[in-house]
Amino acid sequence: MSRFLAGMVCGAVLLFGAMHYHVVRGKEGVFLVPKISKNLSNVYVDIRDFRLSDWQQHKPLAAAMVKNNRSDLLEDASLSSFRNQVSGLVDGLFE
């Protein structure tokens, strides 16, 4: 009976965490970002190679990161993508 109760408590704690936080893997490590809407979407997201099109698919995550002062993680991903696109364009012009 005690194992059952321990399992129920553990499951409830994990469900609470999944519904209230995004687990975000960035280049600097793993971060917990509080969610704006309480649901089970985007529980774990790896943003190390995100591009602007990826951020359009994960708008609630981007909004939660901006609201919780973690926009520095957004800038790194989008700026590196933008730099790569500009670099490819410049290389294409001077070939």
Structure write-up:
The structure is a single chain. This protein has 95 residues and is of the alpha+beta class. The protein has one domain (2-93). Helices cover 60% and strands 16% of the residues. It has four helices and three strands; from the N terminus they run αβββααα. Strands 2-1-3 form a three-stranded mixed beta sheet. The longest helix has 23 residues, at 71-93. The mean pLDDT is 84.
Radius of gyration: 18 Å
Oligomer: single chain
- H-E order: HEEEHHH
Shape: elongated
| Annotation field: number of helices | 4
Which range does the strand content fall in?
A: 15-25%
Low-pLDDT runs = none
Total domain count: 1
Structural class of the secondary elements? Answer: alpha+beta
Major beta sheet, specifics?
3 strands, mixed
As a percent range, the share of helical residues equals 55-70%
DSSP strand count: 3
Spatially, the strands of the biggest sheet line up as 2-1-3
Mean of pLDDT: 84
> What's the N-to-C terminus distance?
72 Å
